[in-house]
Amino acid sequence: MSDIIQLLPDHVANQIAAGEVVQRPASVVKELLENAIDANATEIKLIIKDAGKTLVQVIDNGKGMSVTDARLSFERHATSKIKAAEDLFQLNTKGFRGEALASIAAIAHVELKSKQDQDDLGTAIVIEGSDVKSQEVSVTPTGTSVAVKHLFFNIPARRNFLKSDTVELRHITDEFHRVALAHPNIAFAFYHNGSDLFNVPQENYRQRVVHIFGSKTNEKLVPVEEETEVLKISGFVGKPNFSKKTKSEQFFFVNQRFVKSPYLNHAIKSAFEGLLKEGYHPSYFLNLTVDPKSIDINIHPTKTEIKFDDEHTLYAILRSAVKHSLGQFNIAPVLDFEHQSSLNTPYDYKDKKASTPAIEVDRSFNPFADETRVKQKATSQNTRFKSAPTASWDGLYAGLESNENDLQSDFSQVTFESEAKDASIFNDSAIETTKTTFQLQQKYIVSTLKSGMLVVDQNRAHQRVLYENFLKHITIKEATSQQLLFPLQLHFTPNETKIIDDLKADLEHTGFVFSELTEKEITITGVPVGVPESEVSIILEQLISDVENDVPDTNFSAADLLAKSMAKSLAIKNGQSLNSTEQEHMVNSLFACKEPNVSPTNRPTFITMAVDDIEKKFM
Ligand code: ADP
Ligand code: MG
Q: How many CB atoms are closer than 10 A to CB 505?
């Protein structure tokens, strides 16, 4: 018998592949929008006719294609985005398969026009069902336009299978939302049958969410920010009382790619535990940034599924970040779009009159006065805090009791393993009276509790203490400064002085006094009490770089950032040894804080280990 196996002709193979890539007009929309983004466009126009059945066109101002590339782009597995298998593990682009244009061209009429910036003329290609009908020189702006007409013209079964225009348009709108949400820094316009459905400029993330979901969305957004070594989270969750019966406002983006992840969705739901009515779903718009090496998006051609290397860690971080934000929201004032900058302050100092601060300032008190030169920095920071009369373990306990709603719930989040157990450590009425502290690796302060052990991260703890203190000063505007003997002149670039100028009022509230602020030069005559002159330039430089890294975010709150930045600059570093008075003082100051359990950047400041757990380890 003769051989019967044959290789399929290309156009047949393309048609089969097309079935996977292109299910409906919305799939074309997604592929074309992603190509435009991969081409670094800053403006993208989407033009649709008859829910995409007649026309899907995407016009971008990206980098365009050369004459040869334009032709090659329609070949199967033709891509400029990866060259070798290794590249799959560090993808920074949406596309990588080189299948989309070939697949689309196999089942539609495609007209592509493209021009690169350096060329005077571009190229225009017409393809129908994989047949190149023409390629000509064309007068066209820099960028690319791809028009896809008569989708499925050669697969009637597929064409008949398409749903009503309303349904298909909804799919298209969903795709558009996902792409537009993931890229607030790109301007998008979307037209259907000649009327414009969306027209959004380059903007920040909050504005983008509000533009897409309506101005009422604004008041319901609670910012979520978290940064750890493995993961950066930013975005918003909806306040629980705005939760919806549908899941239409649930968006995860991983490295700016929309993904569906039931597992991470569960992490969020569990963070909302107890806050949602039966049958309601939380809204969320969250951007996760991870190392491209740690994910695999290659498991499905339409690429909304994703595999993470370390799902469990992501789950835990995500859940606690969302929980934390929801917790803050309970005490934070309503977020207001117009006045965003001042509103991300986690503590409601407006009500300050009603409650006395837990720590009082006593500038003459210096618990480390006998310390040597090496520790001077730490010393000067701590002089600003007087040990409150109750600042001891009893004080910690008293604090917990008097402020149950706030603090207790915070403490219950601290745990690693068993929440109930750790919370009980702090409820234990007989907290060890003869406590001993010691320092581990000049990094942790270890202390005993009656029912276990406490390990405090000295740097994070000090950051928390300083942060709350600075924030208090900035917000209630009552810091004192120490006059410098000689004015300090610092030189910066105009951009940098602009940043300082913008923050001037807040800086003054911490105790800085500026005598002159020009484009290139800043003259300082006073600094916050306890800040050594030698640290001033470091603080300001740190501040500038923090602002530069953070500013595009709407939730940027100058006061909060300043407090965080200064706390980071001034906190006792790891590797610094502390004597027992200093250790104790640090622990006490930490637990006198409003939110002792996390550092200003949301990392745990301490861990506890119950005797029970220790016992288990010996079994
Ligand atoms: P992929 O995006 O997976 O690489 P596509 O079939 O979508 O595959 O595109 C093939 C190639 O065509 C891309 O790798 C890119 O080089 C080029 N291309 C497609 N669309 C555009 C565009 N809008 N602007 C510039 N180049 C494009
Ligand atoms: Mg592509």
A: 12
- When computed from its CA atoms, the radius of gyration of the chain, rounded to whole angstroms, is 29
- Ligand 1 centre and the CA of 121: distance in Å? 19
- pLDDT above 90: residue 33: yes
Asked if residue 100 has its Cβ within 6 Å of ligand 1, the reply is: yes
Give SS3 for 118: coil
**Residue 408's pLDDT band (cuts 50, 70, 90):** very low
CA gap 444, 574 in Å, rounded: 8
Higher pLDDT, residue 132 or 416: 132
pLDDT digits (tens, 9 = 90+) for 166-215: 889 989 999 999 999 999 999 999 999 998 889 999 999 999 999 998 88
- Sheet bearing 452-457, strands edge to edge: 437-440, 444-449, 452-457, 606-610
For residue 144 and ligand 1, the question of a CB distance below 6 A is answered with: yes
Ligand nearest to the CA of 36: 1
Q: Cα of 39 to ligand 2 centre, how many Å? A: 10
Residue recorded with tokens 């504005």 = 207
Tell whether ligand 1 has an atom less than 6 A from the beta carbon of residue 101: yes
Q: Considering only CA atoms, which residue is closest to atom 7 of ligand 1?
A: 100
Collapsed DSSP state (helix, strand, coil) of residue 526: strand
78 CB within 6 A, ligand 1: yes
Q: Which helix (H) or strand (E) holds 191?
A: strand 187-192
Question: Residue whose CA is closest, atom 25 of ligand 1?
Answer: 64
Contact between 554 and 458 under an 8 Å Cβ cutoff? The reply is no
Q: What's the pLDDT tens digit per position in 187-200?
A: 999 999 998 889 99
Contact 62 CB / ligand 1 (< 6 Å): yes
pLDDT at residue 315 greater than cutoff 50: yes
CA 236 to CA 554: how far, in whole Å? Answer: 11
Residue 71: CB within 6 Å of ligand 1?
Answer: no
- Residue 459's H or E segment, with its range, is helix 458-476
Instruction: Please compute, for residue 283, the number of CA atoms within 13 A of its CA located in the half-sphere on the CB side.
Output: 22
Please give the number of the atom of ligand 1 that sits closest to the Cα of 58.
23
- Are 50 and 165 in contact, with CB atoms under 8 Å apart? yes
For 116-155, list the strands marked E by DSSP.
Answer: 122-128, 131-138, 143-149
Distance of CA 214 from the midpoint of ligand 2 (Å):
30
Instruction: Give, using CA atoms, the residue closest to atom 2 of ligand 1.
Output: 95
The string of pLDDT tens digits covering residues 112-154 is: 999 999 999 999 999 999 899 999 999 999 999 999 999 999 9
Q: Is any atom of ligand 1 closer than 6 Å to the C-beta of 97?
A: yes
Residue 568 near residue 556 (C-beta atoms within 8 A): no
Q: What angle do CA 138, 139, 144 make, to 5 degrees?
A: 80
Cβ-proximal residues to 193 (8 Å cutoff; 6+ apart), any chain: 48, 49, 50
Ligand 2 centre to CA of 251 (Å) is: 22
Q: Which of 266-275, 364-373, 527-536 has the lowest mean pLDDT?
A: 364-373
